[in-house]
Prior knowledge:
alpha/beta, Rossmann fold, 22 helices, 23 strands, repeat
Amino acid sequence: MTAAPEAQPVLAVEGVKVAFGAHEAVKGLSFSIRAGETLALVGESGSGKSATALAILRLIEREGGRIAGGRILLGAGADQIDLTALSDDALTDIRGDRVSMVFQEPMTSLNPVMTVGAQLAEVFIRHRGLSARAALEEARAGLDAVRIPDAQRRLGQYPHELSGGLRQRVMIAMALACRPDLLIADEPTTALDVTTQAEILDLIRSLQNEIGMGLLFITHDMGVVSEIADRVLVLRHGQAVEEAATAELFRAPQAAYSRALMEATPRLGSGSLTRPASTTPVLTVRDLSTRFPVRKGFLRRLQGELHAVRSVSLTLNEGETLGLVGESGCGKSTLARSILRLVEPAEGRVDLAGRELTGKRLADLRPERRLAQMVFQDPFASLNPRLPVHELVTEPARIHGLIGEADQKQLAAELVTRVGLEADCITRYPHQFSGGQRQRLCIARALSAQPKLIVADEAVSALDVSIARQVTDLMLDLQQREGMAFLFISHDIAVVERVSHRIAVMYGGEIVEMGATADILARPQHSYTRRLLAAVPSGKPGEGRKDGRLREAVAPKLAFTRPGERLAQLPLVEVLPGHFVRAEAA
């Protein structure tokens, strides 16, 4: 939504400085937002985006920071107030009423021991003085407004019972409950898959049109910016480096840093890798299935089984990357863990570098485990904070008896150099590295075991675009030099296109389409693949998504069977050479 030229400003930030001790995180920042307008605040981690948002809401003090200068003016005319001059009690009346915020991770923002209805009703009781019954009725209407199905039932559920997309919708319902003048959305779609992201963006845009609120949208995803923003403010090291209308910035960015951000952003259709020459298989999966028992009641009686992975077959050759895509809950991560026997499959066969994994006891798998290593989404959670780098990155090599303790520092120096870090960093600890550097350490750690296969499970989804570009460049370089195979799991199809030779699309625990990356993206055959591609932002302001508005569709659900019940499966058919598609029910 574009604000009318005569629209009143809902927010004016004037020369604001934010400090953490002696460090100045935001350095004299100024901008304004009018009613109905969306300003995107973009930049890499550490640029001051979130610090600015927390300063506006005066939550920065709770994070150990302080506003060291400037003014933050909310509203216009007689209703204008300076947020920097308000007491804590006065701020409590403002937050959630005139200014609201949607955070990146709804699970950490929602109270896990309160029902969704109770948390929503609390907003109406606090800011509107409604009775508990009236507040609960308003809460149901709020869930209806953000298009949550079966809103009455959801009121009695807890946050953990909802999907990530539904939890984010609850957060939006809470933020918009009192129809605020200003909504601050801090990376609200970063952790969501493309279809859920598209739905959330559509929802925010339509509600903004209805309410006429100003929107401060914080993100590092320039594709999202192209869809939702009227203007863009680019931050670096706490300072504004460029501010422009969205179309103008995308057409001709003036600052070198803005150009670097644009160039690092992956765009669908930018080209894919050609198929590697090797036909030597590193990984062969045949009819792999993984099921989880569902038990209920006091005696935990077996009610049936949830089919997380259903008869999956695939092959991955030396020097090849297979991209695995699909929405959250479709079975991608369970498939990866089942292949490596981190989750026990119910049936099927897995061969790794010519050795069968599924036919062995777990206790006898150590030699095979060396051949396949995993890189996870959160590098900080993957690294022991108490160990120095030289112990962290060489641990797999020591476990598998490839080196002795005397050789670990030399190997560590070689490994960190291979992933683009300085050799002298091996005495440091994980907290002394940036997110991108920590992910490089995770890759170095995986390399220490001399694997044939690396499974990267959302390995770049939480990183800034420029850092993610560096990590994927590193993976491509390692693959070219050492012939390594990658199973690359991601919800970002543009990134998958850039690094993958082939793509497998998962839906409801099944692979519904698989083939060469260029073929899948240019000629998608399955309706679900087309839906995924329709949800990807075009990256061009004013053009919308690749195939227009996202069609309404039911999110993939894993199949459930009761004891003794068999599950039918439609066949996977080769429609073009090397291009397989699952038949669809009529």
